[in-house]
Amino acid sequence: MFKWKNLPKGFLMGIVELIPGVSSGTMALLLGIYDQLLGAISHVVSKHYKNAIIFLVPLVAGMAAAIITMSSVIDYMLQNHMIPTHWFFMGMVLGVIPMMVRISNVKVEFRAAHYILIAAGILLLFVMSLFSAEAPDLNSVGMSMGDLIKYFFSGMLAASIMLLPGISGSLVLLIIGVYPVVIFAIKEFTSLNFDVLPILISTGLGIVAGVLLASRAISYLLRNYTYLMYAAIIGLLLGSVFAIYPGFPITAIGWIISVIVFAAGIAISCTLGKYNNNADV
């Protein structure tokens, strides 16, 4: 029996993955399924594939449903209410930190190397946030073999990175200039324009390949360098704020709304983190 209780969890992961700068790995942490997720992905091509598929199918279905149904909503929010939307997700990311500090046992386990990794994670995301690719002409999106290969490797890179809490696959796609193309293709496909199907297939295959490859590597690192990985994740979470930060609100109403949604984001993450008292990375 498929674990359909994971369907809404997958839906939430799909929503946040549509936002450049917010990682579905972060949401998996909050939902208390990060370790299970990595384990299931790494077992897809093993003798334990049946259990892995039972766990993953509802998550993947939920993510697919979110991407198909929410891409237009997210696009609208980012186009018309960009600052408060980003402040909300900034709050959600920062709200994960208390849970990570708790499960990392920072006071006991962390040494100089751990704090260096935190600083490195912050610096990496800060540098990534400085890059912004020029938006492509969506009226003439390329679909040559070279373009499709680019979409495949872009999806592969983004998927490898999105498994790490703190780094969004959408941010990677944005930096390399593919994000607008993928969102455009999703919106066109939901409008029954099947001409964009090659873009979605090539990117999707890249995502599958990236997830399968990265899950084993991350699982290995978490097993053998647990607290160093915790430190790196904390750094990536803190650094992702640079990628999400949209600037300050301009109007008084904008400030009020942004502060409220920022606080709401922190409260939601902290509540989920406390609810998953036994959450393990």
Automatic annotation (TrEMBL):
<feature type="transmembrane region" description="Helical">
    <location>
        <begin position="151"/>
        <end position="184"/>
    </location>
</feature>
<feature type="transmembrane region" description="Helical">
    <location>
        <begin position="196"/>
        <end position="215"/>
    </location>
</feature>
<feature type="transmembrane region" description="Helical">
    <location>
        <begin position="252"/>
        <end position="272"/>
    </location>
</feature>
<feature type="transmembrane region" description="Helical">
    <location>
        <begin position="12"/>
        <end position="33"/>
    </location>
</feature>
<feature type="transmembrane region" description="Helical">
    <location>
        <begin position="112"/>
        <end position="131"/>
    </location>
</feature>
<feature type="transmembrane region" description="Helical">
    <location>
        <begin position="53"/>
        <end position="74"/>
    </location>
</feature>
<dbReference type="Pfam" id="PF04018">
    <property type="entry name" value="VCA0040-like"/>
</dbReference>
<keyword id="KW-1133">Transmembrane helix</keyword>
<dbReference type="InterPro" id="IPR007163">
    <property type="entry name" value="VCA0040-like"/>
</dbReference>
<keyword id="KW-0812">Transmembrane</keyword>
<protein>
    <submittedName>
        <fullName>Membrane protein</fullName>
    </submittedName>
</protein>
<feature type="transmembrane region" description="Helical">
    <location>
        <begin position="86"/>
        <end position="106"/>
    </location>
</feature>
<feature type="transmembrane region" description="Helical">
    <location>
        <begin position="227"/>
        <end position="246"/>
    </location>
</feature>
<keyword id="KW-0472">Membrane</keyword>
